[in-house]
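Q: I have 254 residues here and want to know how they pack in 3D. Can you give me a structure?
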Amino acid sequence: MSVDDPAGVLRSTSLDPGPHSRIFETSWPVRLGDANEHGRLRLDALARHLQDVATDDNDDSGMREEPLIWVVRRAAITIERWPRYLERIDYRTFCTGAGPRWAERRTSGRGAAGGHLEAAVLWAAVDATTGRLALLSERFDQVWGKGVRQVSARLLHPPPPAGVASRPWAIRATDLDVVGHVNNAAYWQAVEDELARCLPGRIPVAAECEHRLPMDLGDQVRVVSEVEGETLRLWLVGDGGVHASAVVTTEPPD
């Protein structure tokens, strides 16, 4: 089944790399800690896969020497068929766009048993010393930026509606990464949990998450969500505002 992502990020991104694109390929199996009780690769595990593929590409390219930390700004995923437990996924990734301080990466995953997913992730470049957004370097242009289109870092999701019920979301020490903030994959754990609560048994086929404010250990965060037909909308809200939002389109199980 072909499903468009909610905000059109994947629709605006070519499936094919440009003639000068650097392409990186690797593979991983879906391991025990990646799958839910039905054997489906979870959204948070997929987010970790995408993060690790990007990191391996960065290291292989020689860009690890640059004093940058890449932080997810927006991630959009569509799933033709979910990879299953122990299925090996071949990942193929390349840059599809860039702005002054961010870049968009397209990653395709195809499993040995027919799994197929597509993802477009917008990464912001952060100076490892100052913690501020950093301009992309000439080295970035040489490695990934040849011929890519200009992309915006503007976020599109609306704020949460007033009067919608919410519940607390606990941040654990294990959710933090080397930057000291909650890792982007942990946000998807909240999405998976809310799916199980609000749309039990349904399968996500398109999902998008936007990151606005970092979450830290000790933050008081609440999950706000609503269901519209087959779609779940979710916000992680703290005292300072919306930390992140997600929209997920689902379908019944096969």
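Q: Anything worth noting?
A: The first helix runs from residue 43 to 61. The chain has a mean pLDDT of 93.
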